[in-house]
Amino acid sequence: MTDTRPAPRSDFSDRLRHPVPHLFVYAFAIVPAIALVAAVPLAWGWGLTWLDAGLALGLYVVSMLGVTVGFHRYFTHGSFTANRPLRIALAVAGSLAVQGPVRHWVADHRRHHAYADAEGDPHSPWRYGTSPAALVRGFWHAHMGWIFDRSLTDQRRFAPDLLADPDIDRVHRGFTVLTILSVFGPGVVGGLVTWSWWGAFTAFFWAGLVRVAVSHHVAWSTNSICHLVGERPYRARDRSTNVWLLAVPSMGESWHNLHHADPTSARHGVGRGEIDISAGTIRLFEKLGWAWNVRWPTEKRLAKLAARPDEPAAA
Ligand SMILES: [Zn+2]
Ligand SMILES: [Zn+2]
After folding, report:
1. How many domains does the chain fold into?
2. Using one digit for the tens of pLDDT, what is the confidence trace for 205-257?
3. What is the pTM of this model?
4. Any domain includes 266
5. Which residues have CB less than 5 Å away from ligand 1 (the ion)?
6. Domain that holds residue 69
7. 163 CA distance to ligand 2 centroid (A)?
8. Is residue 245 assigned to a domain?
9. Where in the cell does this protein reside (predicted)?
10. Start-to-end CA span in the chain (Å)
């Protein structure tokens, strides 16, 4: 890499993550992943009830949009203005994805943009170099290894706006409760609907554990795959890419090269056929009058950001 500036100490909080929540980081990253691996052979014998599938899909969509529309496009990048109920709802919905409390998520992600693919980026796959072995290590680090780092991004530096917001403070502090609801809530619903322990268990397994694991890996792929392989039609200072294969499950976040070229844009999938469910959701909020000042991309701006053929992509 050309840029090897060390991350300034001031980027980090002066305290490490407490060992107890840190243990939960391990638990919530690893247990759902084990469930996901177990799910495939188990599904043969069990089948999957419509209730389990409906709960899993519903929670997947709500929590993913909470992250992509809420945590990412709204809270991190300010790509639109939201009314108070929508602001709170987005913070709650994003928390249900179990990717960390809202202020941690936003602070880490703003740091990612500040140092994208350079020293100081919390999750660059290029961290260890460009050899095949370094990239395998880098992929693991960018995908999920980085979340096991106990040092915390300084919220005073990277998320002062959210620190000053009492509504968001309440949602941030409620993260543990929201996590319990998100993981165990489906089991309660499944148990009550089927009036059986087995129904409670399968709903917990599919809509709690497996759903969280799938959404984790899709979200983490934006950090790993979308900085590693794919197309770079826009000029960004980093190695971000567009990966069409992940467009639908990631709710449009895998048009990641455009996102790094134009971080405040409310739409990431700007080309023909580039499906962006998050942008569609923001459009709906705008139509309902809940969101305004939406930063929609313009033809002129996109033309300016397009990579020119004579120009090598960011090294
Ligand atoms: Zn990125
Ligand atoms: Zn971003």
Report:
1. 1
2. 999 999 999 999 999 999 999 998 889 999 998 999 999 999 999 999 999 99
3. 0.88
4. no
5. 240
6. 18-230
7. 19
8. no
9. Membrane
10. 7
